[in-house]
Amino acid sequence: xxxxNRRHFxxxxxxxxxxxxxxxxxxxxxxxxxxxxxxxxxxxxxxxTIRAMGNEHIHxxxxxxxxxxxxxxxxxxxxxGSSPAVxxxxxxxxxxxxxxxxxxxxxxxxxxxxxKYKTLPQVFRESGHVTFGTGKNEPGRxxxxxxxxxxxxxxxxxxxxxNQYELPLCPFSPIGDYSKEREVMHSGTHSAEVYADACIKxxxxxxxxxxxxxxxxxxxxxxxxxxxPKRFRAMYKGIDLPLPSSFKPKHPFDNGILKIxxxxxEGFPRNPNKVRDHIAAYYAMITHTDAQIGRILEALKKxxxxxxxxxxxxxxxxxxxxxxxxxxxxxxxxHSVHVPLIISGPGIPKGETRGQLCxxxxxxxxxxxxxxxxxxxxxxxxxxxxxxxxxxxxxxDHLYFAFMSWQRAIRNEQHKLIEYCVNGKRHTQLxxxxxxxxxxxxxxADVKYAEILAELRILLKRERVRLNDGNTPSKFTDKxxxxxxxMYESVKDTQTQ
Length: 497
What we know:
Layout (H helix, E strand, L loop, with lengths): L5 H25 L5 E7 L18 H9 E4 L2 E2 L2 E2 L5 H10 L23 H7 L3 E7 L7 H5 L2 E6 L9 E4 L14 E4 L3 H16 L6 E6 L11 H4 L38 H32 L5 E7 L18 H4 E2 L1 E4 L7 E3 L3 E2 L3 H8 L14 H5 L9 E5 L3 E5 L3 E8 L2 E8 L17 H17 L17 H7 L3 E2 L2
Parallel strand pairs: 1-9, 1-10, 2-13, 3-14, 4-15, 5-6, 5-9, 18-19
Antiparallel strand pairs: 2-12, 3-11, 7-8, 10-12, 15-16, 16-17, 17-18
């Protein structure tokens, strides 16, 4: 065996050290610790209900805190609804990554997600995260909650309750048994506090754990009944709140669903002072929910894991509360499909906004990419990471909306077209959202906008085909089995109101 001289030995040693360093760096890049996720989801919260985003009449210090610590999306939307309970299809789209027309089980009102599609928390669970859920999980009772979550507590498998202080909740089941027989009535504590308590307890139990988590807190507020603790309700007096410019005593024409439960929460025609009281109660619920979010954020901070946690805040749909003579969300006006979306966490800019058009369902691929997880091929939405990292990046040129068999809409960066087909009659609305964000001035009959109207109609029909709208059974047909598009093409006279 030949012995190396000193110089040769040193060369080899240096080369080995350099190689080790390169390998070490590469290993470090591929072994970045997995981020945690805290997903805060509210029910029926409109996009314009956060003080930091411009509403000076509401108090939301903790939502404001999220705005300042992350990126707020000013044009985040849902797709609409294929059910009067808009929350159910919206949540199914969110967790499945599928569009309204490509969900399974459309013949059922429960929108249970097919086993063919991995849910968002399921992807995280299979990657090694402990996945925790609490609060409203409708749909989910019959299957997809069980495969999505490895932990949980205080679970509501209903669309709503008749009292915020009387809650039929299921405990977590390791075997996925969430039958109604296992529900336990929880009385005396407001729902928002119950779910916050459950999440805080989870954080306390996870404080010393090295396992990353995905925690989903699904509030059932500010959905009615509009109950909140007295000190929060006392913060708002209806007489002090302005009516929105889009307030109307009644909707100008039949939109297909004017007598639904939500619309009966107030009498006809709408009384301005009573609507102000509804707004006050709605704001009080949001402020109370905001306080619970603050408690959750403080509990997360105490664990020392805040810096390693991606926080998402969003809502399943908006709400009219008197706008356009409506009270509910069974429509495609902006007040019902335009929702808040805030994302903060490691590597995400602070205190910035993004105005690009997006769906909240884009959260699914966004979180997968941020956590270096593979997005399932069945996911149909687009990651927001491009615009999170580059404020000038492109995302979507337009968005498409639908409500059951009666309403379709499309918007681009400036204009929005809504088409209605109800009982053999067509109605058309065209709005300039930059000049008229509350959709008060219908431009459909204005000859100056004829070209824009024609272009949006072409785009509406094109998106109908791309999104498979018209090829889905019962959810999108009326009692006679007719869908929107068959009626739209058969009725030629259009009224513009």
